[in-house]
């Protein structure tokens, strides 16, 4: 395959050399013909030619920005008044110039070489020069359009998409405890729910970010948010744990494209002096998403009565209602995005000048009307567009069927995304990509490692306290007694229960060990974390209970009868207040981000992105370190709020720097790659910290503190982008 490619390249190069030689020989013949024809020209026509040449130069300099000076510098009397674009003389197809237009032939000799005769390096050099010119001109155009109603409308639309991303992150931690119980998930499988969502977000960030540089910011964002909304709704109705993981995987895959696309989109309609501040204000929607998720979880999930059942197979509990409510920001953003235009900066990058001009005029007119100046005219007539370089794509011969065409199209798009990604490691952005990789990884590892699994830390502390209050009962002998009350947090050992009735009872965290049940009746029983270990049941009847076989550990059942056994795990304890505490803690931790958001937005353009990034990460590392000395839940919650408030400034400044360091043709791709790396670091921190949460808190906290400080020092080495135009 490689040799075939080399042969094809050699043939193409040879064909170009032959074409150049043929053209050079034709030019010599043209020069001789032109010399003969020029002798017949009068002085009057020569003077007219000089006048027209001056007029053309003025026309090019005055208004046609970005248009090559390809107009003819003179014409003979025979061709005066004719439209050269409409008329073709007889010998044109043979490459013979019209003798009546000898001066045209002479002017053509001085024109630049056509693109098909240039190698790729020359084309890329010209495109780079065009992009630099466009960057300066686009900044002036955005300043002329002003900052007003259009930017604020787009601000709230994109904010809803960013809010949906924040909700998706917090949904995992809030749903996990209830989903574990409802779906009977063992402790060994509970970590998969958090990891699978981040895995989907990681792949989605890279894919949708790359697609945004190929098909457009608006189009990519619409598709990815639609995918997220559909699978988020579907996940609230599925019953099996495997199918639930599948839906949350694709839900995460969809929402993964929100962050890179949103920031790329919004930055391209902001002027330089507004960019840092307003991108920081946009980050507040991620915090609002976290507050929304915490408040909804606090209000919905503990209300176990908000549920219904269709037999024993279909259970719809309150946490599923919470999942539906959390999908509403995503749906709102999809609806609002349909009324927004594409990024004009992206359209100019791919050569769609007229569409970009119309959108820029729309931005200008919308803002001017809001200011009470509808008479103000958009003065831009022509915008520089970079030279478009066609990609040579090999299409297979058997693409006649629709599925083959789809396959080729998908493969081509994926290959284009990969090529754009590899360009993020080319000069001059290679060093910036490496440094940004280190900063994104360390910040994500430290932040998500402590924050995502923090509800489980609180849950573990409460479990330890709960276990310390357990009651032990030994050698009980109870006969002919009716149990009709709740048993909670108890251990019964070596007991004998003869002719007893257990009716309409709730068992919560109750264990029976080495006990005998003879001629007993269990009726209308609901249990949670209840087990019978090494027990013996003789002539016992079970009616309408949820005591399944796995709750009888090493137990012997002799002549026992089961009627109407409720399968599946049950959530039915209205007096479980631990959920309220977990959601309230997360609500406080998310609300603590608000001061950091305000400070970062106000100071982003004053003290600079780098100072805020490095200082915030170092201070976050120090505050994270002091979590080690927390001796109570209240002290750890207070330190967590301080940690979140300091970290958000680093996130905001890092988002702004990332947008400004990449050029338009790879901005979303580079951002998507770094965001994917962020999710990978979150999964790694999730697994490491989650495995140590019940063993020791020193190692994960010290690890997070160390990586945050190191990442902050690396961030200080990034170039300052405060005064740069958006390349």
UniProtKB/TrEMBL annotation:
Entry's transmembrane regions: 152-177, 189-208, 220-237, 243-267, 279-301, 321-340, 436-454, 580-603, 610-629, 635-659, 671-692, 698-718
Record's protein name: Synaptic vesicle glycoprotein 2C
Residue ranges occupied by any Major facilitator superfamily (MFS) profile domain in the UniProt entry: 154-722
Keywords: Coiled coil, Cytoplasmic vesicle, Glycoprotein, Membrane, Neurotransmitter transport, Phosphoprotein, Synapse, Transmembrane, Transmembrane helix, Transport
Family according to the record: Belongs to the major facilitator superfamily.
A Gene Ontology BP annotation from the UniProt entry: neurotransmitter transport
KW Nucleotidyltransferase (keyword) present: no
Membrane topology: Multi-pass membrane protein
Renumbered residue ranges of the record's region Disordered: 35-85
Coiled-coil portions: 113-140
UniProt GO MF annotations: transmembrane transporter activity
Organism: Charadrius vociferus
GO cellular component term of the entry, any: synaptic vesicle membrane
Protein location: Cytoplasmic vesicle, Secretory vesicle, Synaptic vesicle membrane
Gene3D superfamilies per record: E3 ubiquitin-protein ligase SopA, MFS general substrate transporter like domains
Keyword GTP-binding among UniProt keywords: no
PANTHER family membership: SYNAPTIC VESICLE GLYCOPROTEIN 2 (PTHR23511), SYNAPTIC VESICLE GLYCOPROTEIN 2C (PTHR23511:SF6)
């Amino acid at each position: 395959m490689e040799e075939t490619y080399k042969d094809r390249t050699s043939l193409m190069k040879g064909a170009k050399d032959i074409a150049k030689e043929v053209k050079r020989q034709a030019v010599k013949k043209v020069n001789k013909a032109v010399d003969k024809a020029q002798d017949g020209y009068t002085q009057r026509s020569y003077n007219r030619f000089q006048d027209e040449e001056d007029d053309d130069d003025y026309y090019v300099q005055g208004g046609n920005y970005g248009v090559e000076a390809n107009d003819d510098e003179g014409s003979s009397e025979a061709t005066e008044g004719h439209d050269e674009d409409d008329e073709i003389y007889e010998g044109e197809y043979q490459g013979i110039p019209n003798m009546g237009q000898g001066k045209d032939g002479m002017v053509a000799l001085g024109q630049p070489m056509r693109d098909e005769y240039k190698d790729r390096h020359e084309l890329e050099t010209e495109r780079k020069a065009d992009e630099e010119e466009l960057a300066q001109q686009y900044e002036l155009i955005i300043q002329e359009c002003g900052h007003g109603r259009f930017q604020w409308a787009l601000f709230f639309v994109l904010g809803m998409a960013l809010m949906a991303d924040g909700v998706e992150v917090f949904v995992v931690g809030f749903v996990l405890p209830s989903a574990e119980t409802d779906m009977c998930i063992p402790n060994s499988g509970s970590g998969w729910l958090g990891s699978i969502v981040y895995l989907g977000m990681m792949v989605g960030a890279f894919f949708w970010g790359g697609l945004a540089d190929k098909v457009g910011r608006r189009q990519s964002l619409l598709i990815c948010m639609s995918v997220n909304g559909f699978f988020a709704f579907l996940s609230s109705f599925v019953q099996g744990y495997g199918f639930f993981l599948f839906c949350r995987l694709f839900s995460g895959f969809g929402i993964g494209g929100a962050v890179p696309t949103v920031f790329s989109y919004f930055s391209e309609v902001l002027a330089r002096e507004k960019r840092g501040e307003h991108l920081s204000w946009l980050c507040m929607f991620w915090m609002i998403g976290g507050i929304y998720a915490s408040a909804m979880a606090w209000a919905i999930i503990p209300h176990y009565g908000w549920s219904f059942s269709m037999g024993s197979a279909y259970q719809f509990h309150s946490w599923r209602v919470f999942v539906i409510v959390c999908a509403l920001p995503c749906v709102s953003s999809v609806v609002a995005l349909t009324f927004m235009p594409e990024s004009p900066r992206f359209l100019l990058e791919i050569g769609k000048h007229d569409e970009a001009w119309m959108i820029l005029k729309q931005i200008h007119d919308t803002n001017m009307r809001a200011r009470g100046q509808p008479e103000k005219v958009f003065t831009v007539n022509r915008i520089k567009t970079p030279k478009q370089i066609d990609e040579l794509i090999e299409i297979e011969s058997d693409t006649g069927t629709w599925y083959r065409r789809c396959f080729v199209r998908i493969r081509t798009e994926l290959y284009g995304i990969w090529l754009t990604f590899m360009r993020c490691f080319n000069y001059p952005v290679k060093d910036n990509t490496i440094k940004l990789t280190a900063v994104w990884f360390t910040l994500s590892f430290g932040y998500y490692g402590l924050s995502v699994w923090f509800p489980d830390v609180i849950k573990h502390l409460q479990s330890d306290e709960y276990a310390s209050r357990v009651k032990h009962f030994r050698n009980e002998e109870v006969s002919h007694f009716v149990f009709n009350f709740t048993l909670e947090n108890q251990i019964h050992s070596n007991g004998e229960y003869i002719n007893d009735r257990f009716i309409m009872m709730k068992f919560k965290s109750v264990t029976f060990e080495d006990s005998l049940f003879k001629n007993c009746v269990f009726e209308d029983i609901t249990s949670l974390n209840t087990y019978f270990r090494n027990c013996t049941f003789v002539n016992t009847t079970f009616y309408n209970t949820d005591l399944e076989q796995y709750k009888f550990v090493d137990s012997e059942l002799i002549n026992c009868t089961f009627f109407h056994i409720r399968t599946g795990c049950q959530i039915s304890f209205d007096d479980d207040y631990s959920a309220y505490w977990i959601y309230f803690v997360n609500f406080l931790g998310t609300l603590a981000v608000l001061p950091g958001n305000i400070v970062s937005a106000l100071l982003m353009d004053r003290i600079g992105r780098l100072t805020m990034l490095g200082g915030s990460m170092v201070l976050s590392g120090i505050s994270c370190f002091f979590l080690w000395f927390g001796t109570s839940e209240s002290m750890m919650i207070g330190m967590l709020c301080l940690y979140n408030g300091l970290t958000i400034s680093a996130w905001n400044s890092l988002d702004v720097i990332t947008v400004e360091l990449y050029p338009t043709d790879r901005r979303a791709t580079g951002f998507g790659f770094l965001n994917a790396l962020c999710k990978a670091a979150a999964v790694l921190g999730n697994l490491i910290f989650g495995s140590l949460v019940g063993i020791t808190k020193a190692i994960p906290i010290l690890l997070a503190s160390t990586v945050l400080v190191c990442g902050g020092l690396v961030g200080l080495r990034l170039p300052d982008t405060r005064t740069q135009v958006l390349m």
